[in-house]
Design brief:
3 helices; rod-shaped; binds zinc ion
Length: about 70
């Protein structure tokens, strides 16, 4: 079977989505744990961004509280 450049995923090793380097089986889908941490950090940032969209407590409500 000849290698098909159109389908690199099945014809050869996968490439790191962070830096584009070939990924060894131990660290797939990334080339290293460092790139895995980078991807994880991006994912967490996106997750936190969704949480911030939730309506937070109104800070003006604290002024209405009376120490009774
Ligand atoms: Zn990488």
């Amino acid at each position: 079977m000849a290698k098909d450049p159109v389908t690199p995923l099945s014809a050869g090793p996968r490439r790191c989505p962070i830096c584009g380097k070939p990924t060894p089986p131990r660290h797939q889908p990334f080339c290293s744990t460092r790139c895995a941490d980078i991807d994880l950090g991006r994912w967490l940032k996106g997750n936190y961004r969704v949480e911030t969209e939730e309506p937070a407590d109104d800070p003006s409500d604290e002024t209405e509280r009376q120490p009774d």
